[in-house]
Amino acid sequence: MISLEEARRHVLDRVARLGSTLVPLADAYGRVLADPVIATEQVPPFANTAMDGFAVRSLDTADAPVTLEVVATIAAGDPFEGVIGPGQAARIMTGAPMPTGADAVVMVERTRFDADRLTVDVEIAVRPGNHVRFAGEDVQVGDELFAPGTVLTAGHLGVLASVGVAAVSILRCPRVGVVSTGDELVDAQRPLAPGEIRDANRHTLLALVAAAGWEPVDLGIAADDPAVLRTVFAEAVDRCDVILSSGGVSMGAFDYVKVVLDEIGDMRWMQIAIKPAKPFAFGMIGDTPVFGLPGNPVSSMVSFELLARTAIEWMAGSDRTELPLLWARSEDSLGHGSDGKTHLLRVEGQVDDHGIWHVRRAGGQGSHQLTAMARANALAFSPDGQMIEPGDEVQILPLR
Ligand code: AMP
Ligand code: MG
Q: 257 CA to middle of ligand 2, Å?
């Protein structure tokens, strides 16, 4: 058996970043920027008013209160071509361009407008620049806005839109193929014949892939038959950036997954010192990474969380190589006697008012007992031979 760390390192050392692609801004949310974005426009594009009010020459207000002649009304989007001369002002609405000659704005609340006489009484003296938003105050032409690796949030998209960027170069979204292998597997369309079971893994794994923001590719159920498996994996390599296969990686006599993957790929078959999810395979068919996850439904999900997720995130642009573990307080006995393995227990956790996780067993802990996985929101790491009693600290991996 090898350690979980060794298996993770093996995988992370072999996966590569995906290429980049240009997408419209509408498709860029949550994606990872591939190239730096350099601003070719300034923001704001022109000096404009931050308030509804009157654009004035600030010197004219020095002896406020004063009465000024109103020579224009300027709306947002409708620049005034004239000049504001001494003793003059313009009514101006938020976002409208500052007229030539004016250097400050008096907010409407500190003025009284006489619409008949076209004059305004200004109550206060203002300094140059008062309530003016200057051109380029937020972004200047040539600024490097965001560096490669930035995960694009709503705020990033807003900035990109405001400098006129219509499309950005992002790392490609991984297309992740999911195949379940085994002669006993059937979907929900027909009653079970003797010896058959329902295929759970394809549904859990496709959902985990979709929830991670990747593109799931359903490769179906493949029988334990070398010809079928060859066809399925060949198709998978064409359509996918990563393949998640479940079943057939342990010691069974009909595990043709092993035979076929060894024939077409460069695989390493591992026994990891964890329970569940001890058997695991990883390799490359050409340059497509293949994860051989164990068949037991809990094991395949645990294996995905511990061995596949970080690696696929890396392919998609993340820099994180460690599992995002937290410390929690156990409310149950979670330890086990020595068997050479770290146990991953399905636990239900709650965060208390101090931000501390409290976890308890989420149900039956067999690797075929998927209901506990459904209830669980974390995996607890129970180190080999260590007793974890109620009140003790335990490391957990929150599940997403
Ligand atoms: P294997 O890894 O192929 O030896 O399978 C281990 C156990 O997991 C067996 O009991 C299989 O029937 C079961 N199993 C394999 N694949 C699936 C699946 N897709 N859904 C549910 N159970 C599975
Ligand atoms: Mg099998």
A: 9
Ligand 1 pocket residue status of 295, Cβ below 6 Å: yes
Residue 348: phi, psi to the nearest 5? -105, 125
Same domain, 211 and 292: yes
Residue 321 lies in a domain: no
How far is residue 104's CA from residue 233's CA, in Å, rounded to a whole number? 69
Greatest C-alpha distance within the chain: 99
Q: Is 265 in the pocket of ligand 1 (CB under 6 A)?
A: no
Pocket test for ligand 1, best of 197, 218, 260 (most atoms within 8 A of CB): 197
How many domains does the chain divide into?
4
Q: Is the CB of 197 under 6 A from ligand 1?
A: yes
* Cβ count near 30 (within 10 Å): 13
Residue span of the structural domain in which 300 resides: 4-17+173-315
pTM (2 d.p.): 0.84
What local confidence, expressed as pLDDT, does residue 255 receive?
84
Question: Which residues of the chain have a pLDDT value below 50?
Answer: none
320 in a domain, yes or no?
no
Count Cβ neighbours within 10 Å for each residue of 255-288 and write b for 16 or more, e otherwise.
Answer: bbbbebbeebbebeebebbbbbbbbbbbbbbeeb
* C-alpha distance from residue 152 to each of 113, 145, 169, 241, 265 (Å): 46, 12, 11, 22, 35
Cα 193 from Cα 200, distance rounded (Å): 17
Cα dihedral 58, 59, 62, 67 in deg (nearest 10)? -80
Distance CA 222, CA 181 (A): 5
What is the per-residue pLDDT across 279-311, written as a single tens digit (0 to 9) for each? 999 999 999 999 999 999 999 999 999 999 999
Residues 73, 95 within the same domain: yes
Instruction: Give yes or no: residues 34 and 146 share one domain.
Output: yes
Ligand nearest to the CA of 200: 1
164 & 284 share domain: no
Residues 147 and 226 in one domain: no
CATH number at residue 339: 2.40.340.10
| Residues 308 and 226 occupy one common structural domain | yes
Instruction: Give me 352's structure tokens.
Output: 């208390």
Tokens 């490359």 sit at which residue? 284
